[in-house]
Amino acid sequence: MSGTLDAIKSKSKKGLNKAKGALGIQTAPSEDSNVVDEIAEFCPKLSYQQRMIGFGSCFFLGYVITFMSFNFFIDLIEGNPVPFVMLYSIGNIISLFSSMFLCGPKKQFKNMFDKKRKIATIVYLSTLATSIIICFIPFNQQSKLGILVILLIVQFLASIWYSLSYIPFARRAVKKCFKNTMDEGV
């Protein structure tokens, strides 16, 4: 009986701390805090309006930078991938961070590595990092260009697939459209 009461008490305390956190009330750190909790403490408690402004600003800035990278697409084709890849990647990173304003870093990391987003997140982040690394490794320019273009396309597709996971039934609808298109083509 005592064990059950302790479990209820512990769960109640955790629930109360979560509710306080959602309302912006400071709570004392618990024994079971981890690195993600510590990262979350770096972000101040923001009002709803500040969160929306932060989200909109980061999202807009990220995509402006990403689209600006296409000014350097000719440089990429001519063998100078650094400006294009760096702007494209920085823009994507800023856009990805924009959602942290809505839910906070802790929940963002949990959401990114949730069961239904885990593969898309890993593919997205690994292609993003690999494209930056490949851009600085000296080797045959044609091979580098081919690898970078493939990485950037996969990164773009993984980003779309990741984003669709937040829209109810969106992935299912896309799969159905592709299946119908493939069935008609055969």
TrEMBL record:
Tell me which Gene Ontology terms the entry assigns under biological process. protein transport; vesicle-mediated transport
Question: Primary place of residence?
Answer: membrane
Q: Name one Pfam family in it.
A: Got1
Q: GO CC terms for this protein?
A: cytoplasm; endomembrane system; membrane
* Membrane topology type: Multi-pass membrane protein
Q: Where in the cell is it found?
A: Membrane
Domain of life from the UniProt record: Eukaryota
User: Which residue ranges traverse the bilayer?
Assistant: 52-73, 85-103, 119-139, 145-169
> What keywords are assigned to this protein?
Membrane, Protein transport, Transmembrane, Transmembrane helix, Transport
Instruction: Give a yes or no for keyword Transferase in this entry.
Output: no
Q: Which family does it belong to?
A: Belongs to the SFT2 family.
Q: What does this protein do?
A: May be involved in fusion of retrograde transport vesicles derived from an endocytic compartment with the Golgi complex.
**Which named protein is this?**
Vesicle transport protein
Source organism phylogeny: Eukaryota, Sar, Stramenopiles, Ochrophyta, Bacillariophyta
